[in-house]
Amino acid sequence: MGKAVYPQLHARDPPNDGPIRAYYRLSRRAKEVPLSNRQFQIGALAVVALVALRLGLGCHFLYEGAWKIKNYDTFTSEPFLTQAKGPLAGLFYAMVPDIHGRRQLRLETDADGDPVIYNEITARWDGIRDDFLEYYRPDDPNDEGAAAKHEKLARGAEHNYKLLCNRLKKYLELNAEKIEAYFEALDRHENDKERLHGAPFQKERRWNQMMLLRQEAAGWIKDIENQERAWKNTLYGLLDDEQKKIGAPPEVGWNPFTWSRMQLIDFTVTASLTAIGICLMLGLCTPLAALGGAGFMCFVVMTQPAFPGIYPPDSAVVGHALLVNKDFIEMLALLAVAFTSAGRWGGLDFFFHQWYAARRRRKELNRLSKKYQKEKQSPPPPGEG
Q1: What is the pTM of this model?
Q2: pLDDT, tens digit, for every residue of 73-118?
Q3: Is residue 115 helix, strand or coil?
Q4: Residue 109 in 3-state DSSP?
Q5: Which of 200, 231, 271, 376 is 20 to 30 A away from residue 108, measured at CA?
Q6: 286-303 and 44-70 are packed helices; what angle lies between their axes, rounded to 10 degrees?
């Protein structure tokens, strides 16, 4: 319909009709190279540099995400968060559940005199045993041979469960005084008036004290986790060859509502880095991907700011920086990619932009066509004609 109503639209010279001329200008602007108008121009080398920058940033993010996927069983964001420094360090410490072990190592006892954490841990181990036995329960309850094997497995699990619980109780009793002394030292550290002072030697001393206290608590927590890991290995060792053919029970199900806070953080970081890297490499949704990457790098900058007077300083191996470090520069590079057309140059955003521009031109053409027809059909004003 556009050609029939507006034969001048497809001519080489601009038409003189007002609405048609407006559409002609709109169509011409849509065909121009992005960032190329009367005020700003960008050369071919600049385009190549921006595309190379986008690909380099995408490769960095994609490899980080791929490495975390490959090492999903050992990767955790906890060291990154616990090593935060600067004025916002407390915000990142709060993301780590029980960073000082106050919940996992508390010494309160119940009415029977047993530590509360002992009851919690043994209850969790009991649940592991029940899930384990249920997983290897025979499908046919009438199979006497399979039922006898399962009964033997249950007796072995019960025996080893009691042994492990006794070992855990002895471990907690042996370290009770040390854990109590640790909490006293932690309270003194948190309430120390020296935290309000800014002398370099005081900052260094408080940081070293905090790291030592965390290391001490982490040692006890790791020992308890190793006992739980040994409990799982013991259960698997009770299986016969036929039961082992079924395979081991899944460690973590694909249900985010059952994940711990650190598991949710680790999954979010891994998925975000991978998605941002893929989008930047393909030039797909480049502005959103680059903004997401800039947000992540801003998060990194806040955990390790290059502010003067912050302890600990950056290692001399990575260089020296004042306010602007390599993470800050990468954040600025991502913002530059986000606010330019780097995705349309050598990326899939080119096809989306062409589709959107053509759709916009069709809508504008239809609007002007209706307006033109309405003007032609309306009577001329009095005194004209």
Answers
A1: 0.75
A2: 889 999 999 999 988 888 999 999 999 999 999 888 887 777 889 9
A3: strand
A4: strand
A5: 231
A6: 60
Q: Residue 368 burial by CB count (10 A; 0-12/13-18/19+): exposed, middle or buried? A: buried
Q: Is 286 helix (H, G, I), strand (E, B) or coil?
A: helix
Retrieve residue 300's tokens: 């990194």
Amino acid in position 124 = R
Give Cα separations from 173 to 113, 117, 162, 292 (angstroms): 11, 12, 17, 49
Encoded amino acid at 119, one letter: N
Average pLDDT over residues 17-28: 53
3-state secondary structure of 122: helix
User: DSSP assignment of 147-206, as one string?
Assistant: HHHHHHHHHHHHHHHHHHHHHHHHHHHHHHHHHHHHHHHHHHHHT-GGGG---HHHHHHH
SS3 call for 324:
strand
- Asked if residue 66 lies in contact with residue 274, where contact means CB atoms within 8 angstroms, the answer is yes
pLDDT digits (tens, 9 = 90+) for 157-198: 999 999 999 999 999 999 999 999 999 999 998 888 776 677
Rounded CA separation 343/55 (Å): 10
